[in-house]
Here is the input.
Amino acid sequence: MAEPRAVTHGRVLNIALPIVLSNATIPILGAVDTGVVGQLGLAAPIGAVGIGAIILTSVYWIFGFLRMGTVGLTSQALGAEDRGEVAALLSRALLIGLGAGAAIIALQLPLFAAAFRIAPASAEVESLARDYMAIRIWSAPAAISLFGITGWLLAAERARAVLVIQLWMNGMNVLLDLWFVLGLGWGVEGVALATLVSEWTGLALGLWFCRAAFAVPAWRDWARVFDRLRLKRMAAVNGDLMVRSLLIEGIFVSFLFFGADFGDVPLAANQILLQFLHITANGLDGFAFAAEALVGQAIGRRRPDLVRRAALLTSGWGVVAVLALAAAFALFGGAIIDLMTTAPEVRTEARHYLVWMVLAPLAGCAAWMFDGIFIGATASRDMRNMMALSAAIYFAALLALTPVFGNHGLWVALLISFVARGVTLGLRYPKIERLAV
Here is the structure.
């Protein structure tokens, strides 16, 4: 092998900063969808777009493991300079994405029925939401395939391409929203069609960015693409990551359910404060993604020294990010709450728990950064098992603390789950360096 590139601060930031910018654009899209349909002057279309988007996003999110599994496996193949496997991995990811999307389209009727049983709405909102989802669901293959493309590009340290794809999709969606809804008067169906077009064109742009893979004959070497051992490894990694993701989802769903027991005002305050966690996650994602790519490449090269260097450098930047976030929340948390709600009682209630938002980035830093390190190493079984242990610790803390401390206990239990995940993964870290030997 040629001598590997040094793991530097520049490489970390070249991956991290475009991802942070990309994440920052995501809330804008939801705001534009809501704002455009809000110009219709009716409440039902706003609720329909909101609930329809949440349902489909939740279904697609289940397949988020495809991004994580792809970036780990591809970065290791890049580190080993196995160009054929790098190309074949893209083909596998695309086939999984297209197949999963086709399955969702085929199962749309029972999926919609189940979703509205879990989250019932008025007859008018449900009817409009079904119209929205019946159109948008046809982009499921593109939306899920983009998880694989994103992982593949990140493994190659092409975070700027990921940013361009996100900006293209958001810009296309906004322009088509304005045209279809305000110009042509297509209402809720127009919003859905705008998303459909933006996701399929986003997939096309992503494939163009991956065009180097299609210059390598292995991308269509079907014997290699469908190699039993490689497929088995990919399935094991992705399966573990899916279980981990479902455990995380279970924690947050239970958090909302338990919070509802304290009344409408604490529930609304919790919903506002969860946005602070989304901001934290979006801010740290860039550095965790950098860890995925750099650690994976180091393992592919069998260089434990580079694994440690990548882990330390990315985590150092992660610490800088969480300190900045904690300080920002301490100084401006009240103002952020006021921007999110005009209800005086919700503002007051949210301020009672703001201290936990200041502590949340500090409590979760190790968990988020170790996630990136372990994804790069494809140590998915450890991620699954430590997540299960952390979930058990969370539920034990929840049952012990909420009867005594109420909503404060609920927030403490959530932060305990972050710390538990960071500590348990930290104890398993030495195995990561041994994987590179």
